[in-house]
Predict the 3D structure of the following.
Amino acid sequence: MNDTNLRIIPLGGLGEFGMNSMAFCQGENIVVVDAGLMFPREDLLGVDLVVPDFAYLLENKEKVRAIILTHGHEDHIGALPHLLKELQVPVYGTPLTLGFARGRLAEHGVLDQAELIGIQPREELDFGEMKVEVLRMTHSIADSIGLAVTTPAGTVIHTGDFKLDQSPPNQNATDYARLAHFGEQGVLALLSDSTNSERPGFTP
């Protein structure tokens, strides 16, 4: 593959609930979005937690630049301690999300070795050939974000989990203006959570 090829690799969470984790690979750079766990199904007797297969990241650990957390739910941050035990890389997230992450990392004894970096909506992160803009998204937990990942191949929008709420309790609505901006510029791919999207009407 040449340098203009972008690879998007789901490590978990695609077509299933839980274990949300995705790798963006451009040239010599890998950015990971989320590191979630899944609570076991009834048929997984004796299993406490299920985490993504991080073998690809460990095999390419010298290329991994960052882990970006979209929000603080367990299916997006729960496997972070397991990954950081094997991979020392900066973790980016909004204040509330990092607060939840700190608790999980402390429980597993890896907080002291973790580099946690706070980010805010509309902030731009530079990872070589990948530029990532943080997008405010509304969800059932505060401080949720999506990402606009711009690469030589084009721009990919990763929404994270979201709901289109016009009057969220904290007044921080989804940043429709930035989503419209990227839509007008042209988007290579939209990676979007789709829970209940086939149900008509509104969710209470």
Residues 95-107 form the longest helix (13 residues). The chain is about 20% helix and 25% strand. The domain at 6-191 is CATH 3.60.15.10 (Metallo-beta-lactamase; Chain A).
